Amino acid sequence: MRKKVVAGIDIGGMNTRIGLVDQSGEVLTDSNIATSQYPASEEFVSAIYNSIELLLKNPDMPLSELIGIGIGAPCANYHTGCIENAANLPWKYVPLTSMLGVYFPDIPVKVTNDANAVAIAEMIYGDAKNLKDFVVITLGTGLGSGIVANGELIYGHDGFAGEVGHITAVPDGRHCNCGRRGCLETYVSARGIIRTVFELLAVSTKDSVLRNSSFNELTSKDIHAAALNSDAIALEAFRITGEILGRSLADVVSFTSPSVIFIFGGLAEAKDMILAPAKENMEKYLLDCYKNKVQVKPSALGNKDAGIAGGAALIWRDFV
Amino acid sequence: MRKKVVAGIDIGGMNTRIGLVDQSGEVLTDSNIATSQYPASEEFVSAIYNSIELLLKNPDMPLSELIGIGIGAPCANYHTGCIENAANLPWKYVPLTSMLGVYFPDIPVKVTNDANAVAIAEMIYGDAKNLKDFVVITLGTGLGSGIVANGELIYGHDGFAGEVGHITAVPDGRHCNCGRRGCLETYVSARGIIRTVFELLAVSTKDSVLRNSSFNELTSKDIHAAALNSDAIALEAFRITGEILGRSLADVVSFTSPSVIFIFGGLAEAKDMILAPAKENMEKYLLDCYKNKVQVKPSALGNKDAGIAGGAALIWRDFV
Question: Where in chain B does DSSP place strands (E)?
Answer without folding.
Answer: 3-11, 15-21, 27-34, 64-73, 76-77, 82-84, 93-94, 109-113, 134-139, 143-149, 152-153, 260-264, 295-298
